[in-house]
Amino acid sequence: MSALVRVRFAPAPTGSLHVGGARTALFNYLFARGRSGTLVLRSEDTDLTRSSIESERVIEDDLHWLGLDWDEGVDRGGPYGPYRQTERRDRYGLAAARLLETEAAYPCYCTPEELEADRSAAEARGQAPKYSGRCRDLTQAQRSALESEGRKPAIRFRMPERDVYVEDLVRGSVHFPAGSIGDFVIVKSDGNAAYNFAAVIDDSEMAITHVIRGDEHLPNTPRQVSLYEALELPLPLFAHVSMILAPDHQKLSKRHGATALSEYREQGFLAPALVNYLALLGWSPGDDRELFTLDELTRAFSIERVSKSPAVFDHAKLRWFNAHYLRALPLEGRADLFVAWAARDPRIARSPELSDQRWRKRLAAAIGDHVEILSDVAPAVEELLRDDVTLGDTAREALKEGSARSLLSDLADVARHSNADGFEGATSREGLSELGRRHGVKGKALFQPIRLAVTGTEHGIELPLLLPLLGPARVASRIASALSQDS
Questions:
Q1: Residues 249 and 274 placed together within one structural domain of the fold
Q2: Which secondary-structure segment (H or E) carries 38?
Q3: Which single residue of 155, 169, 281, 313 could bond 239 by disulfide (Cβ 3.0 to 4.6 Å)?
């Protein structure tokens, strides 16, 4: 049975891939790969005004970035092509002709103005808008008269007047009462197939066995089930996964932050971290485990553990995942990544430190625990490469206390007379402890004046990591600047 599994991800190429679509693609990928099945990437480009080849390429690139691949699609062909809906019009025409012949569909001559008037009247009566059936039982003479007026008909499906039950792998049996859905357009007056009709024909002809998609498509499913039955086509199994909500439990949108995958790439999220996080939005492995590679997800994933409840997208949790994945990188790889992102900032792109292999590794070790996403790197490096800092009133007052000035003068003198190796020893834990003993201080009395003088803040990178990274010349310069501000 596993070899017969065929699923599809069928985005509309009208823009970049959003996190909801990415999660749907991931679930389809995991289901197919975990069952040695086939994943089809289909382009549902029936929206002629907004669809583009460029958007298809962007979506493909986003999927590749996530680490997802597919077996059949626009870019690679396959035995069930073409895989772009605008190239399948003849297939929709044949299926529509079959429905017209069996009177399961009929031509509809209603104008947009007439349909809008019907909708407004239904709403005024407190009823859900649905097609009034105006053209359902027209005689041939009436149709000819309407055509003589120049009206071009759409083709509308005659919705059966009975209850429809959708058997869903996530939600169980979902009931749609008779009469709740009106007759709907399957072919528009311009000859282009509508979404529900095209999806049914494509899924059937591409031998799709499981339709895994977002639950915003659940209201479409009774229409599609009725089309399958009218065309005497075998039904696929349906699985509608819950939508992704924002923390305020509203639909995730731009006002809540980034929604497009490209935005997360630009902010410096790692693809494995995003994949790991998306997998846990609406799916549970059955225990408390949170960290998975893509291969591990493939082995663990099952539709049975997909939740009916909406998932909440927590940006802070995603940043936590990303920070974990960054820290798990080998030091050298993390250093290369940090420097590449630092070099995006023109203020520091030409800094000689970025070309110094030893400095790069020190950077990765020093700021690794302070970076959650890669766009955090450039501001952190810019702060490190400044020659002086501006002290606030609190910092200036703190540097007047006790032995702070003499301690800092001593450290500055050590910095001025040390090379990089000697300075690293002098600023190690042991070296700083020795500095404190010379001035009769330890703990906060030792570390706070140094940190304030060289950073202007009370918290940050551990001094034995920070001071060698700044280097002796910069430490001496910053201390001199701080002491001049204190005077």
A1: yes
A2: strand 38-41
A3: 169
Burial of 419 (0-12, 13-18, 19+ CB in 10 A): exposed
pLDDT in the model for residue 3: 55
The answer on 277 and 174 residing in a single domain is no
- Both 99 and 226 in a single domain? yes
Determine, yes or no, domain membership for 319: no
Q: How far is CA 314 from CA 247, 252, 278, in A?
A: 6, 11, 11
63-85 pLDDT, tens digit each: 999 999 999 999 999 999 999 99
pLDDT band at 379 (very low <50, low <70, confident <90, very high): very high
For residue 340, the enclosing domain spans 329-384
pLDDT greater than 50 at residue 437: yes
User: Would you put residue 207 in left (φ > 0), alpha (ψ -120 to 50) or beta?
Assistant: left
Instruction: Please indicate, yes or no, if residue 267 is contained in any of the structural domains.
Output: yes
CB atoms near residue 328 (< 10 Å): 13
Establish if 283 belongs to a structural domain.
yes
Query: Do strands 172-176 and 164-168 pair parallel, antiparallel, or not at all (unpaired)?
Result: antiparallel
Q: pLDDT at residue 381 above 90?
A: yes
pLDDT at 113 over 70: yes
The residues annotated with a catalytic role in the active site are 254
In terms of residues, how long is the chain? 487
Q: 112 with 254, same domain? A: no
pLDDT score for 468:
95
Positive or negative torsion for Cα 143, 147, 149, 155: positive
Whichever domain contains 418, its CATH number is 1.10.10.350
Domain count, the chain: 4
Q: What is the structure's pLDDT at 487?
A: 56
Task: Print burial letters for 142-165: b (CB count within 10 Å at least 16), e (below 16).
Answer: ebeebeeeebebbbbbbbeeeebe
Residue 323 lies in a domain: no
Residue 275 sits in the same domain as residue 365: no
Final residue of a structural domain among 183, 212, 241: 241
- Residue 2 scores a pLDDT above 60: no
Over residues 275-282, mean pLDDT: 97
